[in-house]
Design a protein that fits this description.
The complex is a heterodimer of chains A (572) and B (169).
Chain A: E1 7-9, H1 10-20, E2 25-28, H2 35-41, E3 48-51, H3 55-69, E4 73-77, H4 81-84, H5 87-95, E5 100-106, H6 122-126, E6 132-135, H7 142-154, E7 161-166, H8 167-171, E8 173-175, H9 195-207, E9 211-215, H10 217-221, H11 225-234, E10 239-241, E11 256-259, H12 266-274, E12 277-281, H13 287-290, E13 301-306, E14 320-323, H14 326-336, H15 344-356, H16 370-380, E15 386-389, H17 393-401, E16 410-411, H18 422-432, E17 438-443, H19 444-447, H20 454-459, E18 464-470, H21 475-484, H22 501-508, E19 511-515, H23 518-530, E20 536-541, H24 568-571
Parallel strand pairs in A: 2-3, 2-4, 4-5, 5-7, 6-7, 9-10, 9-12, 10-11, 12-13, 13-14, 15-16, 15-17, 17-18, 18-20, 19-20
Antiparallel strand pairs in A: 1-8
Helix pairs in contact in A: 1-2, 1-7, 3-5, 3-18, 9-14, 11-14, 12-15, 16-17, 16-23
Chain B: E1 2-10, H1 15-26, E2 30-37, E3 43-51, H2 54-66, E4 70-75, E5 81-92, H3 97-107, E6 111-115, E7 119-126, H4 128-138, E8 143-148, E9 152-155, H5 157-166
Antiparallel strand pairs in B: 1-3, 1-4, 2-3, 5-7, 5-8, 5-9, 6-7
The chains are: A alpha/beta (572), B alpha+beta (169).
The complex binds thiamine diphosphate.
């Protein structure tokens, strides 16, 4: 046993520090610059190293783990190519505010800048896509830097932090003492919202006739779902959610309007357009949500709660900003509200919109469709599974048809829209979550982008359900080609070039199924959900040329909403 | 409109790059930027002159604040402040114009710092608009080359004292 002040190598300090941070898993891949760390790792039993097959996979696993558990995800890779392979995952984590810490090996400090073997300026490369990053130049600063990295990643608006570890620093020797607390004079996130602003928000809400809560991922990150539920319920408020906000409020509750924005529900978008108070909680007025800026919620007094001041007045100028942690602001706000207001006229109107243009799809032609599969999964898992979606049409159908009842259940790449996210992210999720089904759903395109990690899931016997929605197309791009690019289906048809997914699954050693009929869906889902000795792969061969509706074309308004494919006859 | 923003940053590896990266990544323009030590060795002061609508400047200030390495960000625009810039200007001269150029330098309280058989180099300090004025006057003689330091700025004394009490330093 080491006493706190005995001399240690950088490698020992590294793992002792991770222990202090209560790290359970490292997603990593070895290489020259980190050999010393892997040498030490060989004898360590207080945390588990998960060997990935590609460093991008490691970053998405760390993200999945972090998003599902709220803890910090940890990655360890070597210098040069190992480090550059993490870039997409880091950018993804930056866009979606995911707390991960990425440790990269680096060539020895005296070689930095010499184009040494496997040297890359990863600190320079990742500067614009990290919340912060560090190059550790002295082993005496290692413990403090690790402490700072975890602190910065997990507080305020969370985000990725990268720590670059030169080889000689890992080998060097120093005293070890892990700092209990840290102060960063340049970093003091505002936590409590301004009291007067909160009072004013309450007053505006009391006066409102047609209020709307617009809920983003910030509510989930602040663990504010209970406060949100109470607040919405007690005040009878309609709730619409962003892609990242799904699950913050139960999708099966009558007060949920579902998702808003480009592929959001008609009634949610109408409500945005017609509300008189728009109360945004931990959302960032992204262009996929707002459409045309000048026409967004023009009738509404806008209140915006966010922990990151840069989000406020960035895309949309609001009337009342509140900088603070959403959970706390909601709790304070609840105290200010008195009796339940009467919004019956507003609800009547919302329900008219609901009926005017419901979510529908063709059910009677005997063909298999993604929407049907998602509805079935939602039903069978009672909305309680963790769904990890990839990017594309299936992702939007999941957001429309899966009724999430819990937060941290919809894990998806929203900001960056990274295809290839779902498969590895679900692996990270399954290390963190043991008591709920874990379902990774990808398109046939995205599934192939990190397909190598299937073996990671098999090796660790993770009970993940890998569902492939195979429409033989890069579906979402095909949809845009049909709608906006003169039906030139340029390089989106994969029907001649997809692998046999059933055989792929079998080759990797997964229990594998494939079907193209709605009649088999029930049985296959039951089998897949019941199997927990390892991962399962199911290929759903769905119709090729379906489109996601409704869609508000980019930069337009709810008035331009398209709810179905134009009938060629109507087009003449 | 031009804004002069004063930023106190940690004086360590990469802090300057971080600020510069943020400006280019967000598409904010930099008119001039200068950086140097302050009275506290581990803190540097950057003076950034940038241009944009109010909404953009508000974002610039917020984004600067968001960086972990920035300790304090003050938009000095509209405040009592001292702004100075240094310019070195090398001008061609002919028979007869050398005296004219030296006179111009004197009027603007500049110094002649170098001279050879074709050119004369002046050192001018002052608020940026004074430098602009000097350049304007010298242009007809033919400017061979020029180096401007970019603006450095401080709030005026009185306010600085008040501020110090609640300052982070
Ligand atoms: C890494 C990456 N490359 C390209 C894209 C652009 N893109 C967005 S959706 C999409 C098609 C996805 O096709 P598929 O995975 O089959 O899913 P589907 O839309 O058919 O459900 C593409 C290529 C992207 N989002 N990410």
């Amino acid at each position: 046993m080491k006493t706190p002040n005995s001399k240690m190598t950088g490698a020992e300090i590294f793992f002792e520090s991770l222990k202090k941070e209560k790290v359970e898993y490292i997603f990593g891949y070895p290489g020259g610059a980190v050999l010393k760390l892997y040498e030490k790792l060989y004898d360590i039993n207080y945390l588990k190293h998960i060997l990935v097959r590609h460093e991008q996979g490691a970053t998405h696993m760390a993200e999945g783990y972090a998003k599902a558990t709220g803890k910090v995800g940890v990655v360890l890779v070597t210098s040069g190519p190992g480090a550059t392979n993490t870039v997409t995952g880091i950018a993804d984590a930056y866009m979606d505010s995911v707390p991960i810490v990425v440790f990269t090996g680096q060539v020895a400090t005296h070689l930095i800048g010499n184009d040494a073997f496997q040297e890359a300026d990863i600190v320079g490369i990742t500067r614009p896509i990290t919340k912060h990053n560090f190059l550790v130049r002295d082993v005496a600063e290692l413990a403090m830097t690790i402490k700072k990295a975890f602190y910065i990643a997990s507080t305020g608006r969370p985000g990725p932090v990268l720590v670059d570890l030169p080889k000689d620093v890992i080998n060097a020797v120093s005293d070890f003492e892990y700092p209990e607390k840290i102060e960063l004079r340049g970093y003091k996130p505002t936590f409590l919202g301004h009291q007067n602003q909160i009072k004013k928000a309450a007053e505006m809400l009391k006066k409102a006739k047609r209020p709307l809560l617009y809920v983003g991922g910030g509510v989930i990150m602040s663990n504010g779902e209970r406060e949100l539920r109470l607040f919405a319920k007690e005040n009878n408020l309609p709730v619409t959610m962003t892609l990242q906000g799904l699950g913050a409020f139960p999708g099966n509750d009558s007060q949920s309007l579902g998702m808003l924005g480009m592929h959001g529900t008609y009634w949610a978008n109408q409500a945005v357009n017609n509300c008189d108070v728009l109360f945004s909680l931990g959302a960032r007025f992204d262009d996929r949500v707002t459409g045309k800026i000048d026409s967004f919620a023009t009738k509404a007094y806008k209140i915006h709660v966010d922990i990151d001041p840069t989000c406020i007045d960035k895309n949309i100028i609001v009337d009342l900003p509140i900088v603070g942690d959403v959970k706390h602001v909601l709790a304070e706000l609840a105290v200010e509200m008195d009796q339940t207001p009467d919004f019956s006229d507003w609800w009547k109107q919302i329900n008219i919109w609901r009926e005017e243009c419901p979510l529908t799809y063709e059910k009677n032609d005997g063909k298999l469709r993604c929407e049907y599969i998602i509805e079935k999964i939602s039903e069978k898992t009672k909305g309680e599974a963790v769904i990890i979606s990839d990017v594309g049409q299936h992702q939007m159908w999941i957001s429309q048809y899966y009724k999430f009842v819990n937060p941290r259940s919809h894990i998806t790449s929203g900001g960056l829209g990274t295809m290839g996210f779902s498969l590895p992210a679900s692996i990270g999720v399954s290390f963190g979550i043991k008591d709920r089904p874990i379902i990774s759903i990808s398109g046939d395109g995205g599934f192939q982008m990190n397909i190598q990690e299937l073996i990671t899931a098999v090796y660790y016997k993770l009970p993940i359900k890998f569902f492939i929605i195979n429409n033989s197309f890069l579906g979402m791009v095909r949809q845009w080609q049909e709608l906006f690019h003169a039906e030139k289906y340029s390089f989106t048809d994969l029907s001649e070039s997809n692998p046999d997914f059933l055989k792929v699954g079998q080759a990797f050693g997964l229990k594998s199924f494939s079907t193209n009929s709605p009649n088999n869906v029930d049985e296959i889902l039951d089998k897949a959900l019941a199997y927990n000795d390892g991962p399962v792969l199911v290929e759903f061969k769905v119709v090729k040329e379906d489109m996601v509706f409704p869609i508000i074309p980019a930069g337009q308004t709810v008035n331009e909403i398209m709810t179905k494919r134009l009938d060629p006859k109507e087009m003449v | 409109m031009k804004h002069t923003i004063s930023v106190l940053v940690e004086n360590h590896y990469g802090a300057f790059n971080r600020v510069a990266t943020m400006f280019s990544g967000k598409g904010f323009n930099i008119h001039s930027i200068s950086i140097g030590e302050t009275e506290i060795p581990e803190i540097s002061r950057m003076t950034i002159v940038t241009e944009g609508e109010d909404k953009i400047i508000e974002q610039v200030v917020k984004q600067l604040n968001r960086l972990i390495d920035t300790i304090k960000v003050i938009d000095l625009t509209g405040q009592y402040r001292i702004e100075r810039e240094l310019a070195l200007i090398t001008v061609f001269y002919q028979k007869g114009t050398r005296i004219e150029i030296t006179n111009i330098s004197n009027i603007f309280r500049g110094n002649v710092v170098d001279i050879n058989n074709k050119t004369i180099t002046l050192e001018i300090t002052g608020p940026p608009d004074k430098i602009d004025a000097v350049i304007n006057v010298l242009e007809p003689y033919g400017i061979k080359e020029m180096a401007r330091s970019g603006t450095v700025a401080l709030k005026r004394g009185e306010q600085l004292k008040q501020d110090k009490k609640e300052s982070v330093l």
